[in-house]
Amino acid sequence: MRNHVTGGRCPSKATVTGKTVVITGANTGIGKETARELAKRGGRIIMGCRDMEKCETAAKEIRGKTLNPHVYACHLDLASIKSIREFAERLKKEEKRVDVLINNAGVMRCPAWKTEDGFDMQFGVNHLGHFLLTNLLLEKLKESAPSRVINVSSLAHIIGNIDFEDLNWEKKKFDTKQAYCQSKLANVLFTRELAKRLQGTGVTVNAVHPGVVSTELGRHTGLHQSQFSSFMLGPFFSLLVKSPELGAQPSVFLAVSEEMEGVTGRYYDVMTEKEPAAQALDDEVARRLWEVSSRLVGLQEDGPPSSSKTEGVSEPELVQTPELA
């Protein structure tokens, strides 16, 4: 049963020698193990992380264990538009190519925190941050084609809903579970719309649910916060979850597998293509989310950013970003 639930290792033995791989949230959990596995396969690995001390430590460890000297720690705070733009500019100036972008970083069921720019933390980090980063790196990805974008989503998207009237949780009572599910649905919708826009460019994009993985991501959930729950349910939970090493395999599969050549706009449950929830297949919602997201992060396809408010989305207040680690 446990092998069925956790999946297995990436069956492809393909290497990424000569390729540059950018991974967000790579200092811990799935991201760190993805970086380690792709470093083993010869890639030039750019680890984008908020906590530089942890990132430097992780990069040093990976270099030592894989004997790959091309593993680099770079500062990236997905809760800050300024930081995202600085990170992207650095990559565009310093890197000759970007072959794989793995949008892995995320926060899960945290309190009602806001990003530096005033967005709901989960929507801001999990969706808007990666939306902006991907768009800023699109030209580099196109120049490096065939290239791949991988969005780490979640099965939680199936109960998500994009509330365009209150994306920022300012009109209704904050629900951290629903906020998380909304952000994960946004990942799948973003994947769908981006794939349409990238047709013919040689850049593919797919979303993946990595499975239930034991990482720091769930540190705000009830199971981790309650000693009773941890004691009583922990042993059963451990039978159903996979290690970060196995949790990284779906991302590795999408990044290197020969089977994935030319495949785009799809949703994978671990390493098996599945149809996502019905609301994730709504092209009109995907298009609208793209337009709203573009305005919120200051990306405009025609002309400078608009100063007008967006379809029921209040202009966020600037606030201090809390520590996530």
What does this structure look like?
The protein is α/β, with parallel strands linked by helices. The protein has an eight-stranded mixed sheet with strand order 3-2-1-4-5-6-7-8, with helices on both faces. It has helices at 2-6, 29-40, 52-66, 81-94, 121-136, 138-143, 176-197, 222-225, 227-240, 244-247, 249-256, 283-297; strands at residues 20-24, 44-49, 71-75, 100-103, 147-152, 203-209, 267-269, 272-274. The protein starts with a helix and ends in a 28-residue tail after the last helix. The chain has one domain: NAD(P)-binding Rossmann-like Domain (Rossmann fold, 3-Layer(aba) Sandwich). The protein is globular. The longest helix has 22 residues, at 176-197.
Set down the secondary structure blueprint.
Elements: H1 2-6, E1 20-24, H2 29-40, E2 44-49, H3 52-66, E3 71-75, H4 81-94, E4 100-103, H5 121-136, H6 138-143, E5 147-152, H7 176-197, E6 203-209, H8 222-225, H9 227-240, H10 244-247, H11 249-256, E7 267-269, E8 272-274, H12 283-297
Parallel strand pairs: 1-2, 1-4, 2-3, 4-5, 5-6, 6-7
Antiparallel strand pairs: 7-8
Helix pairs in contact: 2-3, 4-5, 5-7, 5-12, 7-12
Enzyme class: oxidoreductase
Catalytic activity: all-trans-retinol + NADP(+) = all-trans-retinal + NADPH + H(+)
Family: Belongs to the short-chain dehydrogenases/reductases (SDR) family.
Rg over CA atoms, rounded to whole Å, is: 19 Å
Q: Quickly count the helices.
A: 12
The name of the CATH topology is Rossmann fold
Question: How do the helices and strands follow one another from N- to C-terminus?
Answer: HEHEHEHEHHEHEHHHHEEH
